[in-house]
Amino acid sequence: xxxxxxxxxxxxxxxxxxxxxxxxxxxxxxxxxxxxxxxxxxxxxxxxxxxxxxxxxxxxxxxxxxxxxxxxxxxxxxxxxxxxxxxxxxxxxxxxxxxxxxxxxxxxxxxxxxxxxxxxxxxxxxxxxxxxxxxxxxxxxxxxxxxxxxxxxxxxxxxxxxxxxxxxxxxxxxxxxxxxxxxxxxxxxxxxxxxxxxxxxxxxxxxxxxxxxxxxxxxxxxxxxxxxxxxxxxxxxxxxxxxxxxxxxxxxxxxxxxxxxxxxxxxxxxxxxxxxxxxxxxxxxxxxxxxxxxxxxxxxxxxxxxxxxxxxxxxxxxxxxxxxxxxxxxxxxxxxxxxxxxxxxxxxxxxxxxxxxxxxxxxxxxxxxxxxxxxxxxxxxxxxxxxxxxxxxxxxxxxxxxxxxxxxxxxxxxxxxxxxxxxxxxxxxxxxxxxxxxxxxxxxxxxxxxxxxxxxxxxxxxxxxxxxxxxxxxxxxxxxxxxxxxxxxxxxxxxxxxxxxxxxxxxxxxxxxxxxxxxxxxxxxxxxxxxxxxxxxxxxxxxxxxxxxxxxxxxxxxxxxxxxxxxxxxxxxxxxxxxxxxxxxxxxxxxxxxxxxxxxxxxxxxxxxxxxxxxxx
Length: 617
Prior knowledge:
Helix content is about 40%, strand content about 20%. It is an alpha+beta fold. A hairpin with an 8-residue loop joins β5 and β6.
């Protein structure tokens, strides 16, 4: 390595933290990237990787086709924890000059490579760290089949740089081809055109002809098989899970058709889903052409497949039209929740959508209570410079964003709103937008300069101010209103007999659980459980919500099911609240540690790092 930018590095190293953040900000309009895309920008990636499960390493090269827009003498990539072996330019075999800047704990290191005005390609030979934050290495015990290892990546928000030197900003898009070599008994799949079965060589080729941002780069490797749903949708899963997964997601084709009917053609070719091992700590990730999902959505009754509708909707809102920075995250998620509920309404009916809207409103109220109504992070447009962008990934972006769009719909009518959104997706396809650009487009193409309408909707208040505007749409479900009246009557005596025949859907039953009094006798818990069978339910959402009450009210009949659930499921959303509730008493904490000792090997580090801290004292 030749340190031709040594003076720059020394200067940066000697700066204070505030000064270093200022230096970070000068690299790019995106405060979470070192890159300068206005000077030199990546356009296409040719990636070649070897997967080593023994060493927990990805090793290979990233060859970037670039556009030098300003005649600059260097290009800057984001890296974090990467071992850079060498760099070359264009067709040259000679090593190019480069330097790694000082390390920022959150952002990693800037990789600055010397180029000339004619350089059209930069190739970086590198390897990842065994503990790369985006790359999760699972031993066979952590999988459903228990026979083969597994890996998956999670690049959102700024973790692509931990497995790929890249311009790691959602505002920068590129196409890619990849060659990935894996053990011969495993299959590799990516956020691209994918193979349908294993080959003897263990070498797989991928093409993503549509320009995507780095956070949508994704790779999974494991003992996977494929089953088609229809001619453009299908499911990948471990063999032991494939049949159940394919049955659960049988409506995927209907959802794609519904989405296209609403907001225009699906532009990604295929839409497939991969069911990851039980240790996957998240719900889903909308990687293009290949959604990553948790197995906890496989309930056996298709009651949780709205998550698929959500990830599919991202094929328009997020993947097609993308937030330019993580300050604009609501442009991805608020639009997607709105789109998701429209798909659910079309496929499963208006009342199902209304119930989900009410549950979303409840989640938003909880988040507002946790943050405080005057907290700056309750704004839609955030200021996350110097912070992990994951801090902005709350129900504010999802649900406040949704209710803002609902307010627009209420003000202008659904027909006009749908026409606006369809045009919005078409005109901005494969582009990244800031909040300000969206507001300008909104003014010009929906509000049409109508200041009275703009004031009625309170656009500025919704987007740029904390809290919830007074004119927020009301979320109402007739079925949920019935449940409220039932629970109010239970203040005298719990009478659950025969209620299940009236509350058949998972959403209704989940709402009932969430409306239960915090304090219930064992007798009351028994009555409810005998009626609904929550303890033995195959629905992870119902299990997790019910188990909180069981722990809190010492309903020990549920203890074996709670233990089995914690050992089997690794999704943070479910297990962290349960361990937290258990740790609330000395006896409960002893029980939690006993269960955790057996469960921990099945967990992802994102989960067990939190629980280690929770139970250490």
